[in-house]
Amino acid sequence: MPRLVVVSNRVPVPSSQGSTATAGGLAIALEAALKSHGGLWFGWSGKTSGEREVEWLEIRDVGNVTYAVADLNRRDVEEYYAGFANRALWPLCHYRLDLTDFSRKDMAGYFRVNRSFARLLAPLLRKDDLIWIHDYHLIPLASELRHMGVKNRIGYFHHIPWPPVDVLAALPVYDTIMRGLAAYDLVGLQTDYDVENFEGCLLREGFGKPLGGNWYESYGHRFQVGNFPIGIDTGAFVKTAAEAVKNPTVKRTLQSLNGRDLVIGVDRLDYSKGIGQRIEAFSRFCEMSPSARGQTTFLQITPKSRSEVPEYADMQREIAELTGRVNGQLGDVDWVPIRYVNKAIGQRELAGLYRMSKAGLVTPLRDGMNLVAKEYVAAQDPENPGVLVLSRFAGAARELDGALIVNPYDTEATANAIGRAISMPLDARRERYNAMMPKLRKHDVANWCRSYLDCLASAPEMPKEHPAAAS
Ligand code: F6P
Predict the structure, then answer these.
(1) Which residues of the chain have pLDDT under 50?
(2) Are 250 and 356 in contact (CB under 8 A)?
(3) Catalytic: 466?
(4) Which ligand 1 atom sits closest to the C-alpha of 159?
(5) Ligand 1 neighbours (beta carbon < 6 A)
(6) What is the third-level CATH fold of 234-442?
(7) Quick one: CATH architecture of 4-231+448-460?
């Protein structure tokens, strides 16, 4: 196996004690992949360093992984991260044209940072390295590396949804984005629906032609496109959840419920997650089921996210106001319907909280996969499992057919599903759980990593003169 080089926007470098801070699903998956293969992990340190240009790397070896990270300056963070990545590409890929804010200045910053990353990464590369680039922040990185003469196999994985062509085409530079993707050897997407949309972009706009199977030719380069649904470390999560009953936070929470049913939602504070619609649905459920009033608590754990982006700051205020209104209207002196927590909770605590919840609400308006859905199911007690209520618009819905699938825009139907989940008989709950667990065990994170890298490593040799390098 050649050396693996992983590139992602954020790199969670372990502390000197060897542990990483609470990390998102992508970071956890990549950490698992790198630890089993060993290799290099390159990207942004997550730190902003004044006005200095991106020109040096901090390199640290931890176990079999070398971490190489760069700080970004304020302008880079504003234009590349908060600007083009999170005000243009993110809303667009989540079908939110209403929130897409395109600026040529941000776009220039996005390409500039990708060029700087390529300049820093290229000298660290060895001839046979397998390079795996992740997420929408870094789409042009392969083509920048090609310009610098890098001929290695380079794969890209898109962790978020890929939109239909008419949505993508609203981005003034969508052809440059497609051209950037054509410089890879393998473009990986989360679901078959994303692959369909991506093919639509290639074919309807005349950017590429199909060569049969999953092969395409675009801008003179042949590459593969495939769906590789990301998984979790199922075995480890099952074990963590079973042990988490002893965790002090979990014990305290159980005590504080005083026999009430718990319903849980865990999401970054992001408009794609449908948190407002979920709160409305829970509130509707309480109104429709007088017996549940006072008997059910909804715990929504929502760490703040991307607060420097105006749409996120607006949303923070809106969700806090909505929660306050619902609690004020429905609550009582001895019962608060919604516990709203704005901080990140560790994996162990989360696993225990999932396990004690009768229902897990994962109702994004659009989501690439959503690993919370998978974690919720894996955390359940097989003898007495809770029920997952899952949005049809999450990638996870393509696999987790034992969930109650809902349309998150339909408040009434989601409220009904919450009621159904809480009152579902044990046999039906077990049947649903047993239908999903074998899939979660088989398609875990190790399988995701292996199947992607096998496909990338077996791609045919690059043509001698790469078109991106020639242009
Ligand atoms: O794939 C979605 C993603 O961008 C991941 O890269 C990351 O783990 C998560 O969202 C959080 O985003 P951010 O790095 O902007 O806080």
Answers:
(1) 19-21, 464-466, 468-471
(2) yes
(3) no
(4) 1
(5) 9-10, 24, 26-27, 135, 159-160, 268, 305-306
(6) Rossmann fold (3.40.50)
(7) 3-Layer(aba) Sandwich (3.40)
